[in-house]
Amino acid sequence: MKNKMAHRVVMSLLMLVAMAVAACNNDIPVIDTTQDQRPDYRKNAVQANRYLIEREETNINSYIERRGWQVRKLDCGARLHEYSKGKGELIGNGDTVTMQFSVKTLSDKLLYCDSVMTFVVGKLEPCEGVDAAVRSLHRGGKAHVVLPSSVGFGVVGDHDRIPPRTPLVYDIEIR
Fold it and tell me: In CATH, what number is assigned to the domain containing residue 118?
């Protein structure tokens, strides 16, 4: 019995010594962090975004073509189809305008109908694309404005009716 007990004690001590020696080993594995082992997420994100923009452009051009509209592409990327030229003065930055408008998607889903808003031109209200289009119109003018999402409400939408990344079609009348 004493031999068994002594044997266990000796084995336990040998085990502890072996663990202590192993813990003192200086050959700790080192992970090389100088090279990123992950796929290039930034490059993939840029490619995905480029694809989404190209698809959106194709859908916008198709929408305009199906309606036979003659449009002018503004510097910001919005398309302006003025179907009734206003008889008033040309609108410029700093002018206060009242705009009656409806908004729908490229699939003709109505988001806002016969809404009215008053704003100061040049402050990018209600969004960059509409602001740019209004600066191209005369008071009393009527136009369709087709907006890529980048100059509409972008990747977040309006937190109400306009979904994220949605191209929009405004039908506006400037008063």
Answer: 3.10.50.40
Residue 125 lies in a domain: yes
pLDDT at position 26 is 55
Q: Which of 112, 114, 110 is nearest to 175 (CA)?
A: 114
pLDDT in tens, 50-69: 999 999 999 999 999 999 99
Residue type, 166: T
Q: Say what the pTM is.
A: 0.75
Range of the domain at 144: 71-174
Angle at 158 between CA 124 and CA 51, to 5 degrees: 85
Indicate whether 49 belongs to any domain.
no
End-to-end Cα distance, the chain: 107
User: How is the beta sheet containing 72-73 ordered, strand by strand?
Assistant: 72-73, 79-84, 142-147, 168-174, 96-105, 110-120
